[in-house]
Design brief:
This protein has 2 domains: about 30-305, Regulator of chromosome condensation 1/beta-lactamase-inhibitor protein II (Methylamine Dehydrogenase, Chain H), CATH 2.130.10; about 320-355, no CATH class. Helices cover about 5% and strands about 30% of the residues. It has 2 helices and 21 strands. It has helices at about 320-330, 345-355, and strands spanning about 30, 50-55, 55-60, 65-70, 90-95, 100-105, 110, 130-135, 135-140, 145-150, 165-170, 175-180, 185-190, 210, 215-220, 225-230, 250-255, 260-265, 270, 290-295, 295-300. The strands form 7 sheets. It has a 3-stranded antiparallel β-sheet. A 3-stranded antiparallel β-sheet has the order 2-3-4, with no helix packed on it.
């Protein structure tokens, strides 16, 4: 079976008193800047399984694999291409003024601004596992663990250093790129004006990474605070809360000047720039499936709005019996315990189950 990317199931609404728009289905929430309608989530969306936010526009994939977009469309970044109509999509990514998508066959699509050829997908790219849009460049992770990059290379953000092989995760920042190798090693390249590409020596055994405007994050379970951050700290985006060192973290994400993290129980932590409420509005939020940061926004999906999906044995409580059923299907297509519907039972499904543990 072809591997599938770890889907980031998120969503957006703009928190009062700045204004508020709430998606009625899917638990989609977004907080922060809404100057271009990037947090005006369309009403009546199907259940959303993955969302990504750029500085001024947002993209989402629903449970049927269809793409939704809202926010700025000045460069066509929120206009879904005709060749994606009816295509089952697994993942989307929002850059500054361009967008990308990955379909179920591993094909990458790009649209929007192309002034730096960030939408010129290489013809020899081949099947991919993930795609990420930076400020003006695009990065893709191939099935074989190699990385491809195209678009703006003015600061070396597409000049892959040696050793970028056997990669498991990628993320494109504003002008730099980060990759996580299967060994847990982290490699950065591109802009380094704030030290955002200088990976600290203590980053060993990382499990997740994120690239933001001018800073970088890595989840390192053996570290004191669980997350190691480097680069610009002008807004406190590197000041990792001490409490993160006491829990298991599943993901991190970096915005322009703020950072967010999600633990295995679905609790969100956020720190850094809070000028638009993008930190205070999500910090401490419970029962989130995923969380992301983009520009001056934070987004998540609220598991509290979803019926109890992890009560596999139907006894009204998520517990040991349900965990046993999930582990019995681990690494397979399920289908009973494939909660995120990505085609394989794994860590993301376990995260959902634990978020409901002892409830329902």
């Amino acid at each position: 079976m072809r591997q599938t990317p770890l889907l980031v199931a998120l969503g957006c609404f703009w928190l009062a008193p700045l204004g508020m728009a709430v998606a009625e289905e899917g638990g989609v929430l977004c907080f922060g800047n809404n100057s271009q309608g990037q947090c005006d989530v369309p009403v009546g969306l199907p259940r959303i399984v993955q969302v990504d936010i750029g500085p001024t526009h947002s993209l989402a994939v629903d449970e049927f694999g269809l793409i939704h977009a809202w926010g700025s469309d000045d460069f066509g970044q929120s206009t879904i291409p005709e060749d994606l109509v009816g295509v089952v999509t697994l993942q989307v990514s929002a850059g500054n003024q361009h967008s990308a998508a990955l379909d179920e066959n591993g094909q990458v699509y790009c649209w929007g601004s192309n002034d730096f050829r960030q939408c010129n997908v290489p013809g020899d790219l081949g099947p991919c596992l993930a795609v990420s849009c930076g400020g003006r460049h695009t990065v893709a992770l191939r099935e074989n663990g190699s990385v491809a990059c195209w678009g703006d290379d003015s600061l070396g953000q597409c000049q892959l250093p040696s050793g970028v092989i056997s990669v498991s995760r990628i993320d494109a920042g504003l002008f730099h790129t980060v990759a996580l190798k299967q060994t847990g090693a982290v490699i950065c390249w591109g802009s380094n004006s704030f030290g955002e590409s200088d990976v600290p020596g203590e980053v060993i055994g990382a499990t997740a990474v994120a690239a933001g405007g001018r800073h970088t994050l890595a989840v390192v379970p053996s570290s004191e605070n669980g997350v190691i951050a480097w680069g610009s700290n002008v807004s406190g985006q590197l000041v990792v809360p001490n409490s993160l060192g006491t829990v298991e973290l599943v993901s991190v994400s970096a915005g322009s000047g703020h950072s967010v993290a999600l633990d295995v129980f679905g609790t969100v932590s956020a720190w850094g720039d809070d000028a638009e409420g993008q930190v205070a509005s999500v910090n401490g939020f419970e029962f989130a499936l995923q969380v992301c940061a983009g520009g001056s926004n934070s987004a998540l999906v609220d598991l509290g709005t979803i019926d109890c999906p992890a009560d596999f044995d139907g006894d009204g409580m998520v517990g040991g019996a349900d965990l046993t059923l999930l582990l019995a299907e681990w690494g397979t297509a399920g289908p009973m315990t494939d909660l995120d519907e990505d085609g394989v039972v794994g860590g993301a499904d376990l995260t959902i189950l634990l978020a409901f543990w002892g409830s329902c």
